[in-house]
Amino acid sequence: MALWEQAHHPAAGGVVLFSGEVRNNHQGKEVSHLSYEAAEQMANKMIAALLDEAKQRWELQVAIAVHRLGKVSVMETAVVVITAAAHRAEAYAANQYIIDRIKHHVPLWKCEHFVDGERAWGGHCSCKQKSTGNIEP
Amino acid sequence: MITLEFFAGLKDYFPPVMEVRETPEDINSLRRYLIDQQSFAKTLLEQCRFAVDDTFVHEDYPLRQGDLVLVIPPSSGG
């Protein structure tokens, strides 16, 4: 709610909020919860630079991204991206760009904890297969 | 000597922080050194990126004494 209060701007006619939330299943397995870790200092720097880049590219009035670390339960929010622009097209495009970059480039990792006690790092991103890989610096 | 920091699934194979006494020439040498140390982590290490001073570096980046190197598995945020 506090983030949403920061999302409004007199010059913004379109505000988009994306909330990445924890599903209760993955590839047929029941998920108990997720836990996240990050190379925190580097991740914070990258997200700040990413928001600056998106603001310039889409002339955003507002760009906010917050990613939780530690345990996140089913139906809870793991990541929020808010973008506000003069028109909705820019707000949507910028929002998708930011969340895609966070998922694939920022040093952040999820660990899936399943109800059966197993755990697995990574995965869960349906667009991962389309990615060009992670070797590039 | 350089210091390495490991994250996520890599911590199943390496401690969170590890020192390497003899500084490898570059990132490529470091990657090969790590694969030699933990062959079970080969696939994951081949997918990793490396960062120095919180910036991703290329395979031919020359390592220096005292560098802190982050070993970064494929990202999976969101």
UniProtKB/TrEMBL annotation, chain B:
Gene3D superfamilies, per the entry: 3.10.20.30
CDD domains referenced in this protein's UniProt entry, alphabetically: Ubl_MoaD
Domain of life: Bacteria
Pfam families in the cross-refs: ThiS
Protein name as it appears in the record: MoaD/ThiS family protein
Organism (species): Sphingobacterium corticibacterium
